[in-house]
Structures are given as structure tokens and as C-alpha cells.
Amino acid sequence: MAQEPSIETDRAPAVGELTPPDRTLMGPGPSDVHPRVRRAMSTPLVGHLDPSFVEIMDDVQELLRYTFRTDNEWTIPVSGTGSAAMEAAIGNVVEPGDTMLVPTNGYFGGRMASMARRAGGEVVEVDAPWGEPLDPADVADALATHDPDVFGFVHAETSTGVRQPDVPELTAAAHDHDALVIADTVTSIGGVELRVDEWDIDVAYAGPQKCLSCPPGASPLTLSDEAMEKVLAREEDPRSWYLDLSLLEGYWGEERAYHHTAPITNVYAIREALRLVAEEGIEERWARHERLAGALKAGVEGMGLEMNAPDEFWLPSLNAVRVPDGVDDGEVCAELLERYDLEIASGLGDLDGDIFRIGCMGYSARPENVIYVVTALGDVLESLGATVDPGAGVTATRRALSE
Amino acid sequence: MAQEPSIETDRAPAVGELTPPDRTLMGPGPSDVHPRVRRAMSTPLVGHLDPSFVEIMDDVQELLRYTFRTDNEWTIPVSGTGSAAMEAAIGNVVEPGDTMLVPTNGYFGGRMASMARRAGGEVVEVDAPWGEPLDPADVADALATHDPDVFGFVHAETSTGVRQPDVPELTAAAHDHDALVIADTVTSIGGVELRVDEWDIDVAYAGPQKCLSCPPGASPLTLSDEAMEKVLAREEDPRSWYLDLSLLEGYWGEERAYHHTAPITNVYAIREALRLVAEEGIEERWARHERLAGALKAGVEGMGLEMNAPDEFWLPSLNAVRVPDGVDDGEVCAELLERYDLEIASGLGDLDGDIFRIGCMGYSARPENVIYVVTALGDVLESLGATVDPGAGVTATRRALSE
Which residues lie closer than 8 Å to B340 by C-beta, 6 or more apart? Predict the structure, then answer.
């Protein structure tokens, strides 16, 4: 029934100035954004078909290739957050009737499954407990059993703080069975060793708001020629028009034809964030994350806490720390936010209530942030009655940083 | 085959500082962004689950309701550009087997059709030539013939500069046939009279980079309770996980559950852009667009050019101007860009080569921009040998502005 809006809607809302609190972001992302990236976002816009924007697009593609360690022509920022890049990968590569093998060892394997089903695919699983990586032998078995068209794995599981080792072994096994490999690199890109070409990954997607320290809104995606051939040879259109890579190819490829209005400001931002990666050097950046997160890890272990992941698959960008007995994890996070303006996060799914998730990503991977989070966490845990030694934690971090 | 990236990729790209040209944006969007919105985008981030961000989300929803003229609870910014909001609307409301009636009188009706098909729907059409609105009698006939589940129309056709009049007549006809109505309001929201509730529109989507003068990246969407009931009662999941409104409801509704990382900075931006709407007043803003675009129209007519749309469906936010004989439209646009740093656009589809598309949107709907575009267009046309009277154009604009 047609009707006038209520008096409430009729009146212009009295919404005040934007004054968010000044947080230190040490959770699972977003991380603190580099001031140069924030400045880039305040740059006046040019049109999305402006010749000068085409040059900016070229820059971003070149910088993304460098950061992914790939020569892939099909390397673009997708117009949306990391999940949009994820759905662009799965929704284009998985065709109706295809089978996709996905992992069960974290939150994001489940999301892969949901996206693959919506794309019209069958989903089969390879199991590992939350908090552990996939075992290459299990992956080989699953490939032999199910003969999938596509195999997806999570390189850096944000929900569990686990780094998947043995990637070349996984991709070799998949290729032995003619399966294309899609890697979730949301929390590894720009922070943890990732070599798309050398490791023979066919498709990788990522988020900008983790180790690239760029606000979410334009998200890295790369596809090998072989993967893109499958996409371009599809019998049926992908189910999303917005994320259809054969159409996006017209805009990001030679033709520069209008598809949708690119998120210009987010492209400015990721360009600047990737420029910072190039200036630092990708290998130096991986080393910095390991060094800084190592100091964080030394601090939490020094105060008497336990890491959830063993050292061999510790994920420097996302540190999963066991919640000590007798403490409510939600209360700790709330206190840190309220008393210290500091964001860390609780666990999810099978690890709900068991872990804290402490990020150490991009511009947040700095000594001041690491010292602050170790200090604040120790103080809050002690104040809530946990058996920890905050002083020993800070000392361990201090020593690790001065090594 | 696993391989090292080329030497080119191995080397960090030497990409220089971001220094785009200083354009005046009078094309079909993006429009010039208000300085306050650009400043909001340089604000440091809080997390997407931060209690302070929840308040910001509430503000945005309230301001969007005001701007759409609706009480709809389901009013959110979608995490992507306008096409993402469009696909969220169509991909959720259209179920496999549903029939959607779409218009053929412009570029965006064709996009609606493509999205509806990908959602599993059947598409039927109601015809009108490019450059004309739909005739309510034709819509009523098409509704009677096809009995569609969903009827889509474009309120402000960016490709043709046509405003669809008689919206309440169209929605009443659709509701007589129990069809839900989806309106494309990308180029009308915040600039041209639009009354979602009073006009009985069930679903409306929009873009932020037109009359809201906000960078693209978070895009308005509103659904009536009845439309949302259809979405929540679907037998099959929508084909996009990213745009699944039943999942987004968990984040934007009471629960505030994690779905995907919101594009925080784009939410900051649209909040500020909508705050500017509320400060100005929505009806005053519509009046400003009509007044400024009227001066623009007076100028182009004054110099001897012809508008493509008759006055009764002239679209103030997007002025379609006939290309005068003997002039190449592409050359004119290129000259304006090169000599005046000024963006306007050519025609698309059936009107390719026939029209210039000159926007007058949001922060670009100011006297300085209007005077500049009329002056520059007259000068460039004259220099390219067209029969125009640039002086008379400027005089007509000046008079209209001083009325």
C-alpha cells in the first residue's frame, strides 16, 4: 500500500560528525591503515574510463603481480571486499556439475563449500581438525577418491591462526589429478611467504585489509592462463554478472570497455598500499612480519600463555593464543577495547572460547603495536585473575625486538 | 608447471606517487566528491564489529531511509558499486523459475535481464525506444500478457537521460498482477524526486557516485517487508553468497553477526555524503538539481543545441544533448578532457554517436561547474567547426542562474 513515510523518516536525521574512537587494530583485520594510504583515499576522483585511470589500473596490476609473485596476466583488484574476490574465484572457475574439494579445518573452508554449491558445484571434503593444517597424504587420498575438478585450500586460516605448509606438494597432487587449485591467501598476501607461480597455484584471492594495511573495498585476485581458459570456455554464464571475469576482462584487459564503475578511491588506496610493499621489498616484508610477530609470540609465551598452533605451522600474521583457565575471552576483548582502545578477537567455530586471535599485519606489525598488545593483554588478564606474569611477557618481547 | 616468476615480476615495480589530473566531473558519474566526504575517507579505521561501527551503521541506515523516503527496515549500503546493489536486488528477489519483466529502453534494462537470467529467472520485455520512457499502457499490457513475478524499471536512465514519469501508475499496475517492483534509482537518488514509500516501490537500488557525490564502493539498497519476506522464504539459496540478503541480515539486523568485512572507509564516506543530504534537506536538494541542471540546459539550448529528451521526461541529473551535425562526439569529449580537464561522455547503444551525456549531480551541481561546462563545450564545438553560438549559451546560463 502506497503511503507517506512516517514523521520520523520525513524529518532529516540529526547525525553528528564522524568521530570514531582511535583504535589500535591487532585483531584478524582490518589492520591499522598506513597514513599514506589514508591520504591517497582523500584524493579527488577521476572517471573510471579516464585515460589517467587506465594508467593507474596498469600500475595496480603490475604491483599485484609483484606481491603475488606471479606473471599471471589475469591479476586484478575485484570491486568488493575479500569475500567478493573469493566468490569471483569460485563462481567463475566452478561450473555447474563440477566437483570441488574443500578443507574442513577452519571457517573459510566452509565458506568455500557454500560458494561452490551456489555456483552449481558438488562439494567433497578433506578433513583436518580446526587448528591444524591439511596433511598432504589426506589431500592425495581425497583427490584419488573424488577426482575433483577444483581443489581449494586456505593458505593462512584466519579463524585458527594456522599456516598451511607443503603448498607445492598439495598443488602437485592436485595437478596429477587434473584439478585446478584455488588458494585463499587473504591473510598471507604481503605478510607471509607466498609464491603463486613457484608453488604452481592456479587461482589465488586475497583481502587488502590484512597484511597490505589497506581499507577493504578492492581485493586481489590472480588466475593462471589455464584457469582463465576454463573460465572463458564455460558453457553457461557465471551466476554473478557483477563478478563475471569474462566481462571484467573487457575492462581490465586490452579493450578497457565499461563494465561497472570501479571503486576508484579503493583502487587509489590499494595502489598506494602496494607501492609500500614494493618500496619495502616483498621478502623483507615477510621477514618483518616474522620478526615482529615473533616478538609478540615471545611476549605471550613469556607471560605464561600458550600458542594454539605448533611452531611449524604458526601463522605470523594471525596469532592464535590459548585462553587461560578461568578467564572469559569475550570479557578480555571487551576490556582491551574499553580500557586500551585495542582490538583483538575471540575464536570462531570449533575454537570458540578457546583462543584469542591477535593479528600482526602490515602497518600494525610495528614494535609500538607489539609492545602495546603484549602489555595490555598481560595487564587485563592479571586484573581478571588469570595466572600470568605480565612483566615476564614484556621482557620477552623487549628482548626479541632488540635481537 | 611450477616456475619462478620472470625477472620483471621479481623486481619491485618503480611506480610513482599518485598524481591523477584535477578533473571537473560532469559525465554520467562519478561526480565531483564533496571535500567533507574525501576527508571522511582519510579517517583511521575501526573494526567492522567494533561497537562504535555498529552506531555508524545505524546512522547510515537512518540517513538512507530519509534519502530514499522510506520507512523500510531493510535499508543498507551493499559492499560494492551500484551494480553490486543491483545484483543484490535481482539475485535475491528473483528465484529460479520466476519471471521478470524488464524494459528495453536503455542500457540498464539489458543489464537487469542478464542478472535475472543468471539468477535462474525467465525474462520478458516491455518495449520503448532508447530515449523514451515506458508507457504505462504498454506496461499494463505486458503485465497482463506475461503475468511476471517481478517487474523492473529504470527511474533515471543514465544511458539516455530519461526520467521515467508516472511511477505510481506503473507500481499500481504491477501490484494488480501481484508482481513486486524493483526500481533502478542509481542516477535519481539524492538528485531527482524519488519517493519509495509513497510511490509503492518494493525494492530500490542506487549508486553513491552520482547525485550523492560519494566515491563508489558502498551502494544503497532498500526492500519492503513484503519483498524481504519473499527473499527469506526462498526455497533455494541465492546464487551469490556475498550478496545473500538473508546472511547480510545477520550483520545489518539485530544480531550484528560477522558475514564479511564491511568496506569501512566507504561506509564512513556514504555516512558523510548522506549527512550532507540531510543538512541540505532532500526536497531542497531535488530543487537545486533542477535549478542548476536547468541553467545547464538553458545554456546548451541557448548555443543552438537540442536536448534529446522532451521536457516532460528530462532528467536533470543526466542531460542528453544531441550531437550537432558534422562533429565527432568522441573528439569533443577528448578535447574537453585534454584542454579543460573536463569530463562529459558520449552515448551508448542505440544512441551511440547521437548524444553527449552531461551530468549535473550532487557536488557537481554548482554554478561554477555549470558555467564551466557550458563555456567549454561551446568553445570546443566552435573550434571543431560546429554551428553553435557559444556566447548565447553562456548568456542563457547566466540568466537562468540569476533568476
Answer: B24, B372, B376, B380
Q: Is there a single domain that holds both residue B128 and residue B49?
A: yes
Provide the ipTM: 0.96
- Count up the domains in chain A and report the number: 2
| pLDDT tens by residue, A114-169 | 999 999 999 999 999 999 999 999 999 999 999 999 999 999 999 999 999 999 99
Under an 8 A CB cutoff, do A44 and B22 touch? yes
Q: State how far the Cα of A100 lies from the Cα of A181, in Å rounded to an integer.
A: 10
Indicate the residue among B279, B306, B335 that finishes a domain: B279
Q: Of A281, A144, A314, A155, which is closest to residue A222 (Cα–Cα)?
A: A155
The average pLDDT across A360-367 equals 98
**Same domain for A181 and A39:** yes
What does A30-56 look like in DSSP terms, one character per residue?
Answer: PPPPPHHHHHHHTSPP--TT-HHHHHH
Could you tell me the three cell numbers for B167?
511511477
C-alpha distance across the termini of chain B, in Å? 71
**β-sheet bridge partners, residue B24:** B342
Chain B residues inside the 8 Å CB shell of A266: 215, 217, 263, 265-266
Amino acid B10: pLDDT: 78
Alpha-carbon distance B171 to nearest alpha carbon in chain A (angstroms): 9
The CATH number assigned to the domain holding B366 equals 3.90.1150.10
Q: Which residues pair with A75 in a beta bridge?
A: A222
CA-closest candidate to residue B231, choices B213, B215, B249: B249
φ and ψ at B63, to 5 degrees? -70, -35
